[in-house]
Amino acid sequence: MATTDVVTGAFSYTGSFIARRLLAAGHEVRTLTNNSSAPRDLAGKLVSAPLDFNDADSLMRFMRGADTLYNTYWIHSNYGADAFVGAVLRSKTLFAAAREAGIRRLVHISIANPTASRHPYYASKAELEETLRSAGMSYAIVRPTLVYGEGDVLINNIAWVLRHFPAFAIPGEGAYRLQPVHVDDVASIAVTAGLAEDNTTIDAAGPEIPSFVELVRMIRQAVGSRSVLLKTAPAVALAGARAVGFFAKDALLTREQFDDLRAELLVSKEPPRGTIRFSEWLPRQQTVIGLRYASARTRHQPRVAPLQRSNT
C-alpha cells in the first residue's frame, strides 16, 4: 500500500518540488493550499483542500490517515513584524491539527541560522522551531540557505535589474558571502528527512559559497548585461533598491534583509548536502532568467484571513 503524505503549498514553489519527489517515489500526495492553479505536471495528481487555519477540524480531517506532513507554509519577509506573529499562530494551529490527525512525522522547512538574528523574520522562525520540538511528534527541521531554481524570486530579480537598468548598486564592498541551494536539493533533503525516524535539525545548503558581488557578476555575465556594478554606501544602495521597488511595486531589499545578508546568515556551518552547483545551473537559464519581475507576495501562498480568536 502506497504511503500517503501531505504537503502544504504543493502548488507553490518549494512545496511543488517536494510533491514531485514524493510522487516519483510512489507516494500518494495530498496538499493543503490556497493556490487554485496547479503546475501543469501536477494537475490531477494530488488531492487538494484549502489551507484554512480558521478551521482546525477540517485540517485535521484532511490529514487523517497520512504518514508525514511536509510544511512549507510561511510568509514573505516584507510583510512586517505583526504579520509574523500571525504566521506563527497559524503554523501552531497546523501542527496541533497534524498531531490530532495522527501524523507520524512532521518535516518543517525553516531557514539557516534562525537564532542568529533578532529581526522578526528570523526570530519567528526560531520560535516556531521550538514549538515543533515540544509538540510531541517525530520531526525534522530543514534549514535552507539561499534557495534558488526555476521560478525563484531573488536570483531572478537580480537578473531583472541587471537586464533593465544601466547600473546595479552593490551595498558596501559586497564581500559578504552566501550559499545558494537549488530548490530540488532542498526537496530531496526534506524527503530523505521525512523517511527517517530520529528527531533532527539539518541545514540544506549548496556546494558553492560566492560573495555577493561574485554572485551578481555571474548573473550579469549569464544574461549578457552591460549594467555597471557600483559599490556604494549601504544607505545609497538601499535607497536605490527602494526606487526600483517603487517601479516594481514591491520591496526589492530591506534594511533588515541587508543586515542579515551582511552577517552571512545565508551560509551554513555544516558540510553541504546539496549537489547542484549554482555556477553550472545559471548559464542554462540565460534565455529566461530575469525577463519578468517576480513578486514573492504573489508567488507564495495567497494571503489568508486572520485567525479567529475565541472568547474562552
Strands ordered across the widest β-sheet: 3-2-1-4-5-6-10
Instruction: Report the principal-axis shape.
Output: globular
How would a crystallographer describe the biggest sheet? 7 strands, parallel
Low-confidence stretches: 300-312
Cα-to-Cα separation, first versus last residue: 43 Å
Here the CATH topology of the largest domain equals Rossmann fold
User: Structural class of the helix and strand makeup?
Assistant: alpha/beta
Q: How much helix, percentage-wise, in residues?
A: 25-40%
At CATH level 2, the architecture of the largest domain is 3-Layer(aba) Sandwich
- By DSSP, the count of extended strands is 11
Report the C-alpha radius of gyration, rounded: 19 Å
How large is the share of residues in beta strands? 15-25%
Superfamily at the CATH H level of the largest domain?
A: NAD(P)-binding Rossmann-like Domain
CATH class of the largest domain: Alpha Beta
From N to C, what is the helix and strand string? EHEEHEHEHEEHEEHEHEHHHH
How many domains comprise the coordinates?
A: 2
Mean pLDDT: 91
